[in-house]
Amino acid sequence: MILSEMSKPPAAYTINHEGLRLDIALVETEKLLIHEQIIPYRLNKLKASIERDGVQSAPILVDRRTHVVLDGMHRTTIMKELGCRFTCVCLLDYFDPSITIQRWCRMVPAPFNKKNAETLLNELDLKHESFDLVESPEDDESLLLIFKDSGIKIITEDDDLVEAFKKSYKLERKLQEWGYKILHCTESEARENLTSGSFEATMYLPKLDKLKVLDVAQKKNIFTPKATRHRLPARPVAVNAPLSLLRDKEITVEEANRRLYDLLKDKKIKRFDPGTEWMGRTYDEVLYVFSDS
Fold first, then answer.
1. Which CA distances in Å does 267 have to 38, 86, 235, 240?
2. Which of 14, 80, 228, 241 lies at 20 to 30 Å from 148 by C-alpha?
3. Is the peptide bond before 111 cis (omega within 30 degrees of 0)?
4. Is 11:194 a contact under the CB 8 Å cutoff?
5. Domain 13-100+213-291 has CATH 3.40.50.620
6. The CATH fold of domain 105-204
7. How many Å apart are CA 269 and CA 287, to the nearest integer?
8. What is the pTM of this model?
């Protein structure tokens, strides 16, 4: 697989985190490639917040070689809708081993059970077979429904991962139509929830790797929402790039980055350990927060 590379603008600001470069830069919005679909109601809420504040606070996490967005699908879409020529990003080396890709799981509450699941799968015409719980769901790459004492594997006819994710999304939407409130969680949280009895079933989405993510983004044949969970050791926040700068159509990308540097150069950077809550979200990674004081 050949990965095309984008031209690299100068970074406005660089943070070195234990060997991983976090390059904060403005790039042309049209060059950013998302790999997941967005969720409209989340988009509208976040868009209203950004318009109200007049700034893009958190940089979007982007692979520096391909400009594929790793985290920030909604913000990327919002920047386009707001007419921003530039978007503030954090450029990363995606294949750095400290950056990992995991699955989001879907938890299904009671009274959902295996009999309900088989009825639903037959109704949706999704072929399936039993999954032996001797195997670890985390190690299997398939679309799975796991109960406490049994499992179901949904069969994908070909090797088309985008189609496999469409099946998982179809299944999730049908469960919601049946009245089930679906919880998105990590694989470790899924194990805990199932063991504790908080939920009746876990849906494991197909497992992805980095090359597959880049491939679908560059082909613009993207996955359904919440397909991937990228984990990285650190990220910058509170950069607060003004929308007026991001919308400026008269300046070059080099000049835009010089102006962003001027905004950031006198700010202090505060480092916060994993587990810090910022803007209503708890982060698993180190946060570098830009501050005026």
1. 33, 22, 16, 11
2. 228
3. yes
4. no
5. no
6. 3.30.1760
7. 10
8. 0.91
